[in-house]
Amino acid sequence: MTETLFALVPVYGGWILLVGTYLSCLALPIPASLFMLTAGAFAAAGDLALSSSAGAALAGAIAGDQTGFAIGRRGGTPLVRRLKARRRTGSTVRQAEAMLDRHGVAAVFLTRWLFSPLGPWVNFIGGALSLGWARFTLGSVAGETVWVCVYVGLGFAFAGQIALVAELAADFAGLLAAGAVAVLLGRLLFRRS
Question: What is the residue range of the signal peptide feature (predicted)?
Answer without folding.
Answer: none
